[in-house]
Amino acid sequence: MGCCEFNTKAVSTEEILQSYTDELAEQFAAEAGGLAPRPNEQKDETNERGVFVRQPNSFIKKFGNKEDEFKAENKRYAIYWAHGCNWSNRPVIARDLLGLQDVIADQTTSHTGASNKYGHGFSDQPEFKDPITGVHFLSEFYKNAKPDYKGRATTPTFVDVMEKKAVNNDYHRLSNYIEVQFRKFQPVDAPDLYPKKYRKEIDELNDWLFPHINNGHYRMAFGVSWEAYSEGYDDFFDSLEKLDKRLETNRFLFGDYITDSDIRAYVSLVRWETGYFRNIGPMKKRITEYKNIWGYIKDLYSIPTFAKYTFFHDGLPRKTGMGGPFKGYEERIVPLIPFEELWKSDGERKKLSSDPVNIFLKHPEGETAEDYQSEISDTIWNSPSWEDREPTNYRSDFDVTVNPLKGLLSNN
Prior knowledge:
Helix 4 crosses helix 10, helix 7 (199-214) packs parallel to helix 10 (260-274) and helix 8 packs antiparallel against helix 9 (226-246). This protein folds into two domains: 13-177, Glutaredoxin, CATH 3.40.30.10; 192-393, Glutathione S-transferase Yfyf (Class Pi), Chain A, domain 2 (Up-down Bundle). It has 15 helices and four strands.
């Protein structure tokens, strides 16, 4: 029997994972044209101060109607994403909220080989292949699109499954392309997550969320100096105070209705409370101690699409403790936590809304898909300059605690 042939006997996921050896990964990488191992963040993406400066996204060609832009098409693209990746949960949540599951496919990734030397792959799939395209590694899509690409292959990646090429890995703007350029495929009653009139304000908050909240964990987890760790720590917890203040009088970040920004905030905040804190040391405060943030993420969790992509129970707890009969918190308590019960919303945040029954903004009556189009903005976080992407160099010129669209989003 060949190395990738499986008999008809049912095997468990654990057995499949154990059978994906580094030797097999090496063989698959050679067959794919000699794929390079996955670069290391701490080695390749930290500056002289030990600060983690995340690589810019390289596949940032826009979707739109111009001749040199990608065109939105039905069933041509798939989102490749990972359960534990807050960046890649964002576009699948947006896609599902917009009713595009039959238009844009998706496929989850997992490790490659025992050591994950080649990054994202498909270890939980038959023959360790992507069931959509047959490749073994996410990085094959990058190599097909740009043979000289040297960075990490990251999730989410928007892939042209007909060409087997990566077309966009810009998590800063990918959900916006789905919201805007794929509007013509959305149901008539799809929510307006990115209202055209207020995209500037939403983009500004999203670009603030990136270094302060979304990337906060990684600044602490990947930084290699005390200075870098302390900057990330102080910045993150100061930013939580600002978000908590904003949410004191706003049900969602921009008021009565969920926008693209709420998706971005949720996927990071939920991971802080359930997992990220284990990698960064003592927490100044748990997420549950921020009254308004805690109520806010429970409110979002009550929405089925958000709950679907929350994954409380993914992964096996690490063995910790003193050995013998002494089991640590990860092994002893984590499997027992009744997440679903603890995360039930009490409905109190509805009182902050002038339209408590509705949580989504409707598109203006008579608005066409063409009316909804606009140029999606660029972001400084894709700048090729390390200095531009250095988190501590970022300065916002607005007060995050204040909702500039208070009362402006309306279904009336």
